[in-house]
Write a structure and sequence with these properties.
With 103 residues, the protein is α+β, with helices and mostly antiparallel strands. It has helices at 2-21, 72-86, 98-101, and strands at 63-67, 90-94. The protein has three helices and two strands, in the order αβαβα. The chain has a two-stranded parallel sheet with strand order 1-2.
């Protein structure tokens, strides 16, 4: 008798789980994916993201970048290019990496 009630409760639980996770709501609108000839209609500026030409830095704004010893020369060169293109100064600081944590 106990075995039968356990099986009945497991079957009932399974039915509830399947009913709750079922895909009974197929009334949602589905938009087809754009084909190769179509282009997405949303541009970055229309999606709430400003383009780089629209951004004005705050007075005194600067960008601070940290890296270990290996990446500092590369980042300094990139920082020069970024400053030239956007007019925002970039400061590159060397921070100790895992090799400096050893004793």
């Amino acid at each position: 008798m106990l075995k039968r009630s356990v099986i009945t409760s497991l079957v009932f639980t399974l039915v509830l789980v399947l009913a709750a996770c079922g895909s009974g709501n197929n009334n949602e609108k589905q938009t087809p994916a754009p084909t190769a000839t179509e282009t997405p209609s949303a541009s970055p500026s229309s999606a709430g993201v400003e383009s780089a030409g629209d951004i004005e830095p705050e007075p005194g704004a600067k960008l601070l970048v940290w890296d270990g010893k290996d990446g500092v020369p590369f980042l300094k060169e990139i920082a020069k290019q970024f400053t030239a293109e956007y007019g925002i100064p970039v400061e590159v600081q060397e921070q100790g990496g895992p090799s400096s944590w050893r004793r």
